[in-house]
Amino acid sequence: MTGELVFTKKIMTTLSNLYKAFNVEYHSKNRNRYFSNKAQKDGFDEISKLYGEIAKIQEDHCQMLLTMIKSFWEEKPSLDMKMDNEQQTDFGSVCNNLKASIASQMYEYSIMYPAFIKEAELEHYYAEAGKLQTFQIEEVLIRQRQEKIVQLLSEGNVCDRTPEKFWACKNCGSLQCCTINPAACSSCSSVSEFIELTVAI
Q1: Cβ of 111: how many Cβ atoms within 10 Å?
Q2: pTM assigned to the model
Q3: Which of 60, 66, 171, 199 gives 99 a disulfide partner, CB atoms 3.0 to 4.6 angstroms apart?
């Protein structure tokens, strides 16, 4: 059994959620790093720093999630983690990029982590549930930085306050910005349901 998963329903459900959380955090981290670089190029140095801090929190989450995933393996072999295709990073402007960052945080805080915590508790994985709850709480730190970015953009009078509609794929958490429900996910090609997230700043 060396290097094999124990294929029970409980482990597979919780493990699947950990993979999904890792995937969402990984792409969110990359997206916010891109936003940081773009903000710096556009002359928004303080905003760039705030995006960098958000990406660091998400990088820490990725590392901890990877440790949790490895704990499900008997001999802890190297993991060949299948990632979804790269997700959209540039949403057109510094304001739309901020709205995308907020939409991702809304999905993780209010939808993804509460569901994963509940399922882990139902399956008696209380340690994992506790760690996921910590991640959910730390989403508040991300939100605080996003609110500071909103303030900085408002002070500079460069903030477009038109609401933007985003859709989060229920399968992988990928974000798409469009006016109607997408036909399929641009990242994982899933045709599953999408969660609507409308962001106004």
Answers
A1: 15
A2: 0.79
A3: 199
